[in-house]
């Protein structure tokens, strides 16, 4: 099946390799595996597509074509039936499970680009990096959603007590600035992406400060689609100790990918804490935790 994943209908070729009729092969395959060759092939293609949505910046139309669909509409319908949401929605959720239910217990493994058998639900290992990144994204989005009803006066009111996070940056002056800094992709992400060509010119638009809460949510979602596939790429290829020289530092400093990702998570924890404190002070109660 692995060799025939990109073929048309796999039954004929597989039956020929087994030297039996197509009808006999399909019956034995279904009785043994619990699903027909065609059903297994379609499920594995969708699992591969789900992995590509999470781990690559490839256009959804290209992923649909690789999955054997001649139209984006057909792929979207099939994907929604399988995963309960559209491909564009699934792509935004870092922790979404890609393994679909299948009686054969055969699934697509993105790390090896091959098929493997999962004996039970409990075999899935907990990936701590995935969990931390997903929690960071969801928590930030939840805090921004909680701030949607605030007025400009509440967002721009000057803080009585201002806390300086790092020596080279001024303290936040108001809630709007706190929320903007909470979702900021960070200078190092922008410079790193630009230097390795991960995103076009490091996506210059993402460096701009957002004014409204709606703009902040859109900016956070956009950064998520760039950053999470990068982390998956680092994991899959074991690039944790790969170094990058930040020439903007004086003198230039060398960092590993692991230290940069860790720093981003630590910064996110502090930024979320700051946002929660300030949102609570203006009367927001729901969605802070």
TrEMBL record:
Superkingdom of origin: Bacteria
- This protein is called AraC family transcriptional regulator
Question: Which SMART domains is this protein grouped with?
Answer: HTH_ARAC
Q: Which SUPFAM superfamilies match?
A: Homeodomain-like
Pfam hit, one: HTH_18
The protein's GO terms of the molecular function aspect are: DNA-binding transcription factor activity; sequence-specific DNA binding
Q: Which organism is it from?
A: Capsulimonas corticalis
